[in-house]
Amino acid sequence: MYAIVEMAGQQFKVAKDQKVYVHRLQTEEGKKVTFDKVLLLDDGGNVTVGAPVIEGAAVEAKVVKHLKGDKVIVFKKKRRKGYRVKNGHRQSLTEIVVEGIVAKGAKKAAPAKAKAEKPAAEPKKAVAAKTEAPKKEAPKKTAPKKAAEDLSGKTVAELKEMAKAKGIAGISSMKKADLIEALNK
């Protein structure tokens, strides 16, 4: 049996009688600690996933000692500038031993998956409804373009003659696009 638990801001996979080094806890040495943010439980192949945590599940541990981690060298340098800084860092840690995993109130992961699938199906229907609306508007926009396409194959001289026949004034200074627009009105 193992569990994935959030302890001191980090997630750990823990089992019974396992030693774990976590960020410094405010608990005295020799005292017991309970972590209730259990994200996943595995009990002999029966996996339970929390959403986000499993209600009623907890991990019980005992604080063994407080210590410092290995030294990490932090070296900063800017080339060609003469800037070099060397620092060291030792993280404060707490060693704990997991004494037990309590799985009260644990639920199976299958219902959580069923809930996740239902919302995924609903947005697909909404997307389908949105794509139908532009299809209805498309025929309205294409009708005026067909008339404009018929005139676009003609020369400017032919368009000016057609404009004279319709009695449109000021055609001598119009461009081809303006002539087509005036004839389509």
Biggest sheet features: 4 strands, antiparallel
Number of strands: 8
Along the chain, the helix and strand elements come as EEEEEEEEHHH
Q: How are the strands of the biggest sheet laid out side by side?
A: 2-1-5-6
**pLDDT below 50 for ≥5 consecutive residues: which ranges?**
108-116
The fraction of residues in strands falls at: 35-45%
Shape assignment: elongated
Class computed from helices, strands and strand pairing: alpha+beta
Q: Alpha-carbon distance between the termini?
A: 81 Å
- What is the average of the pLDDT values? 81
Number of helices: 3
Please supply descriptive tags for the structure shown above.
about 35% helix, four-stranded antiparallel β-sheet, elongated, 8 strands, alpha+beta, about 180 residues, 3 helices, single chain
Could you please describe the fold and organization of this structure?
This protein is α+β, with helices and mostly antiparallel strands and 185 residues long. Helix content is 34%, strand content 40%. The strands form two sheets. Strands 2-1-5-6 form a four-stranded antiparallel sheet, with no helix packed on it. Helix 1 (110-152) crosses helix 3 (176-184) and helix 2 (156-166) runs parallel beside helix 3. Mean pLDDT is 81; it is low at 108-116.
Question: How is this structure best summarized?
Answer:
The chain is α+β, with helices and mostly antiparallel strands and 185 residues long. It is built from 3 helices and 8 strands; from the N terminus they run ββββββββααα. 34% of the residues lie in helices and 40% in strands.
